[in-house]
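User: tokens in, sequence out, please.
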């Protein structure tokens, strides 16, 4: 559910171990608990089931374009940072103020792949996520992991029903759905969808000029979260994308990050991903082609070592 306004975002920049940069954002907290119950009994057959035991030619992310509200927030944050940089007044990074995010994993399998995703893979995936976000002061606290066998949900044929049943926590809680057969016919037979995620929005509205903000019902944001092909988890079956970085990429979207090739252009003045130290990039990366430069007239080379590109996990 996309709501009308956007919470203030916390803008963070940090170098990763691969000497790349993130621009991390997080939303303000909401207060309502989602008490939907887990349903493990709906095992409907679905003819769109895809086998995820094949090589994928390139990362395919199905996250949609940013809303106008999110774009405005990025523009505001970028402007504030540029003014602070110009005045040599960038605030020191506060490593003591941690962002705590309750996190819930949901393993959703078809009948024929029940049990393929094991607890070791779950633990390793959590480790990759924790290690990737910790340098930004973002702590993902894994509260629970559910295992569900449901052909319709595992193939993404009933996404709304799945999330309404499985989602936990508040809007400030991260829910990741690892589906064994996540698929989308719109991407063609030669490729396969690795994941998609909702971008930040707000869960409150002000009914009148003098009114206190009111939170939307939980049902209005129970579709929030990330869908990830389970075979991309560490030790999974997806060649080149089985070290857990697809989940990092999608959770980056959940925090408000855009692709480093946003807008797919080299045009001067295009904001791209709104991060000034990310070089302009016009196309996504296949494999890990270090030195690739899709915008040779602009400074820098493509960010093939950035989580928000489509590079393979081995870099």
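Assistant: Sequence out:
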């Amino acid at each position: 559910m996309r709501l009308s306004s956007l919470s203030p975002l916390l803008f963070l920049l940090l170098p990763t171990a691969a000497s790349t940069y993130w621009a991390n954002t997080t939303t303000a907290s909401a207060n309502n608990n989602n008490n939907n119950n887990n349903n493990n009994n709906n095992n409907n057959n679905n003819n769109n089931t895809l086998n995820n035991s094949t090589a994928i030619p390139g990362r395919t992310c199905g996250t949609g374009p940013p809303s106008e509200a999110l774009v405005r927030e990025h523009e505001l944050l970028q402007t504030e940072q540029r003014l602070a940089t110009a005045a040599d007044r960038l605030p020191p990074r506060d490593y003591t103020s941690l962002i705590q995010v309750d996190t819930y994993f949901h393993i959703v399998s078809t009948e024929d792949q029940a049990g393929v995703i094991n607890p070791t893979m779950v633990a390793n995936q959590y480790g990759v996520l924790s290690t990737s976000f910790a340098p930004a002061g973002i702590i993902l606290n894994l509260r629970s992991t559910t295992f569900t066998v449901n052909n319709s949900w595992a193939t993404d044929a009933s996404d709304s029903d799945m999330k309404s049943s499985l989602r936990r926590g508040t809007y400030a809680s991260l829910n990741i759905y690892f589906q064994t057969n996540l698929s989308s016919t719109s991407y063609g037979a030669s490729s396969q969808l690795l994941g998609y995620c909702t971008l930040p929005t707000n869960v409150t509205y002000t009914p009148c000029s003098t009114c206190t903000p009111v939170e939307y019902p939980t049902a209005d944001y129970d579709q929030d979260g990330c869908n990830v092909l389970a075979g991309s988890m560490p030790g999974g079956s997806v060649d080149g994308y089985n070290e857990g970085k697809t989940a990092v990429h999608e959770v980056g979207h959940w925090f408000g990050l855009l692709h480093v090739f946003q807008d797919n252009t080299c045009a001067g003045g295009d904001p791209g991903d709104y991060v000034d130290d990310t070089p302009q990039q016009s196309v996504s990366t296949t494999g890990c082609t270090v030195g690739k430069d899709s915008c040779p007239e602009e400074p820098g080379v493509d960010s093939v070592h950035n989580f928000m590109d489509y590079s393979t996990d081995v870099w």
